[in-house]
């Protein structure tokens, strides 16, 4: 009898050790205090580790991953709740115009690389896809959404900020060394991913 009780206790202990822990993801709105891209990526990595333990949800999961079965996060623009009064304010409309401009910039950069595979797009990325301004504009537009919708759009925002940082890093080349096809492929993939992310974000409004 004592042996059975001991075995049962060990089984419960082992099951508890391997049980998944609830991990909360960090909203981009909580990252506003981040002062530079390196710090942002550090926080982003920590958030991504938490998300990796969650079960995928159907909506747009192939693009941005899931938030867990039955979770309230909205990833389908058709289910988004938008406050039209806030959306109509000058500040949000200005930010929305900025987001559309970023999409145009991404398309221009894709065209530039298509014409010249060795083009240095770094200056354009830093000037026209300014990390801090993009984050501010996206968060500003986000204020027009309800909290559940924001949890969905926050995921897209994190992807955008991460890809901009990685695009700039991929563009960096040592003087006199031509860009390889592999690096060019990485840059084009990042630009395509950015295009899709901006387009998906704009579908919410």
Automatic annotation (TrEMBL):
Species of provenance: Attheya septentrionalis
Identification of the protein by name: Uncharacterized protein
Keyword flag 4Fe-4S: no
GO BP of this protein: photosynthesis
Keyword Signal appears in the UniProt entry: yes
One GO CC annotation: extrinsic component of membrane
Highest taxon in the source lineage: Eukaryota
InterPro entries found in the cross-reference section: PSII_PsbQ
One Pfam family, short name: PsbQ
Entry keyword set: Signal
Molecular functions (GO terms): calcium ion binding
Extent of the signal sequence: 1-17
């Amino acid at each position: 009898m004592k042996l059975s009780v001991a075995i049962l206790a060990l089984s419960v202990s082992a099951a508890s050790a391997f049980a998944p822990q609830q991990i909360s993801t960090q909203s981009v709105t909580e990252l506003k205090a981040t002062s530079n891209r390196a710090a942002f990526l550090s926080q982003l990595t920590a958030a991504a580790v938490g998300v990796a333990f969650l079960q995928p949800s159907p909506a747009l999961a192939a693009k941005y991953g899931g938030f867990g079965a039955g979770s309230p996060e909205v990833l389908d623009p058709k289910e988004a709740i938008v406050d039209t009064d806030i959306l109509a304010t000058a500040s949000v409309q200005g930010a929305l115009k900025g987001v559309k401009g970023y999409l145009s910039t991404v398309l221009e950069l894709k065209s530039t690389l298509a014409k010249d595979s060795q083009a240095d797009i770094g200056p354009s990325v830093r000037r026209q896809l300014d990390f801090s301004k993009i984050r501010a504009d996206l968060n500003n537009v986000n204020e027009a959404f309800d909290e559940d919708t924001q949890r969905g759009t926050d995921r897209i925002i994190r992807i955008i900020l991460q890809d901009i940082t990685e695009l700039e890093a991929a563009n960096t080349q040592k003087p006199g060394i031509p860009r390889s096809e592999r690096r060019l492929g990485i840059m084009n993939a990042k630009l395509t991913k950015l295009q899709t992310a901006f387009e998906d974000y704009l579908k919410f409004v």
